[in-house]
Specification:
three-stranded mixed beta sheet, eight-stranded parallel beta barrel, 12 helices, binds 1,3-dihydroxyacetonephosphate, alpha/beta, 291 residues
């Protein structure tokens, strides 16, 4: 199945009161593990790539071709969208050019008028090619790919203005943070989320920083219009734990069994990713939705 825009799967999720998981990918193993787990679960999925991960994987074209070819090779039947995460203005254009089927333009650090202008331009360009667009209002706290933000809750009126541009789904800061949440975290501002959902007339909303929020709280956010949950750190933690256990058990030193073979070496991390993906698909409701 060719890669698809994320619009339909997100709209279906919004109408059905569940959320699509958007998993960040880092390499071939990440991509393959997530796709295998989602295919098994019959769950539509978004594979997303930050600009840093894109550079690490040798550019937009390499990533787009890799993902397309893996989907084809594995005979994946579920809808899969390839999405640029926190794209710059130039990055969004390059991703569109290279074959991504969805892009986020993150203009949240610009003055609002500039965010608006640039968002409008990216939306027109992407939509002319059938590509879905996510924009951002307010800031997501924490650190991702070396970009750190204190986080700023989104203004519902600004959200309304961006939603009216025809953006497909909107990321709005509601106290969420990339990476691991501090012990004294105050939780999501569900009241603000409900206000944003009302102001945007039911635009599907995106919850960044999906790692470490209690599942019940995420489900409350889904009831208030969140239809895409971004998850990055969770799969990194799962992979690291799987690998740590392998090394600590000395399995890489099993010379007879060739425990040092990279395909064996990376397997426990990949299996841990698959288990975590299955758990998250069930928790946020997309499990079985592409059956
Ligand atoms: P986490 O790393 O906290 O899961 O956040 C992922 C994210 O929001 C990607 O944009």
């Amino acid at each position: 199945m060719p890669l698809v825009s994320a619009t339909k799967m997100i709209n279906d999720a919004h109408a059905g009161h569940y959320a699509i998981c958007a998993f960040n990918i880092n390499n071939l193993e990440w991509t393959k593990s997530i796709l295998e787990a989602c295919e098994k679960a019959k769950a539509p999925v978004i594979l997303e790539v930050s600009e840093g991960a894109n550079k690490y994987m040798c550019g937009f074209k390499t990533v787009a071709n890799m993902v397309k070819n893996i989907v084809e090779f594995l005979g994946v039947t579920i809808p899969v969208a390839l999405h640029l995460d926190h794209g710059t203005y130039e990055g969004a254009k390059a991703a569109i050019e290279a074959g991504y089927t969805s892009v986020m333009f993150d203009g949240s650090h610009y003055p609002f008028e500039e965010n608006l202008e640039k968002s409008k331009e990216i939306i027109a360009l992407a939509h002319s090619k059938g590509i879905s667009v996510e924009c951002e209002v307010g800031g997501i706290g924490g650190s991702e790919d070396g970009v750190t933000s204190a986080g700023e809750k989104a203004d519902p009126e600004e959200c309304r203005t961006i939603a009216n541009l025809g953006v497909d789904f909107l990321a709005a800061g509601i106290g969420n943070i990339h990476g691991i949440y501090p012990a004294d975290w105050q939780g999501l501002d569900l009241q603000r989320l409900a206000e944003i959902q009302e102001a945007t007339n039911g635009k599907p909303l995106v919850l960044h920083g999906g790692t470490g929020i209690p599942y019940e709280m995420v489900r409350s956010a889904i009831e208030r219009g969140v239809s895409k949950v971004n998850i990055n750190t969770d799969l990194q933690l799962a992979f690291a734990k799987g690998e740590r256990e392998y090394f600590e058990a000395g399995k890489d030193q099993d010379l007879k069994g060739k425990g040092f073979d990279p395909r064996k070496l990376l397997k426990p991390g990949c299996e841990a990713i698959k288990a975590k993906v299955e758990e998250l698909l069930k928790a946020f409701g997309s499990y079985g939705k592409a059956a």
